[in-house]
Amino acid sequence: MIFDELKNKKIKVGNFVLMTVPATIEYAKDIFEIMQTDSKSMIFWMPDGLFESPEQTLVSYYRRNRDTKTMLFGIFKDGKLLGEIGFTGIAMKSGKVEIGYWLRKSARGQGIINKLLPRIEKMAFEQDWCHKIQLHCDAKNIASKTIAEHNGYTLEGVIRQDSKWPNGSLRDKLYFGKLKSEWKK
């Protein structure tokens, strides 16, 4: 399995711990609580709608953990789940990974993703087959756009009306990329 050596490891980055978390009802309840508490802002990460129950959350995470094309790490500080960061798409044949992340509302605006993103990039680019990392975000998600720019990603395109949100609005998506040759600099 891709990145198998990272499963069940705790990765320290400053005051934060990154770790894959098994699909358990306890973790699903935590995710569900965050989604419910921050429902208005979580739509940036869940344009298809929020989970309706901890059980639905668990099923989604179980499927994700079985999928070899994703690998997300829980972001923990002092034992509290703050969000997730990791690989939301792995395409070995084309040599690319997509990175995604989200944070609970109370953890945003503190530069957490800017501290963790370089470690996640390192994990990807240390793979011989990986030559490119991609990020994408809703065009109105200024925080994610700023994170991409701050970390040296190039805006590669705007896909107009790429997402249809639960309220029926059509939204543009920004696509960013970073090449291994740019990372090495």
Can you lay out the helices and strands and say which pair or pack?
Blueprint: E1 10-13, E2 16-19, H1 25-37, H2 39-42, H3 54-66, E3 71-77, E4 80-91, E5 96-103, H4 112-125, E6 132-138, H5 142-150, E7 154-164, E8 170-179, H6 180-184
Parallel strand pairs: 5-6
Antiparallel strand pairs: 1-2, 2-3, 3-4, 4-5, 6-8, 7-8
Which properties best describe this structure?
185 residues; 8 strands; 6 helices; 8-stranded mixed beta sheet; alpha+beta
Q: Mind explaining what this structure looks like?
A:
By secondary structure, the chain is an alpha+beta fold. It is 31% helix and 34% strand. The protein is built from six helices and eight strands, in the order E-E-H-H-H-E-E-E-H-E-H-E-E-H. An eight-stranded mixed sheet has the order 1-2-3-4-5-6-8-7. Helix 1 (25-37) crosses helix 3. The model has no long low-confidence stretch (mean pLDDT 85).
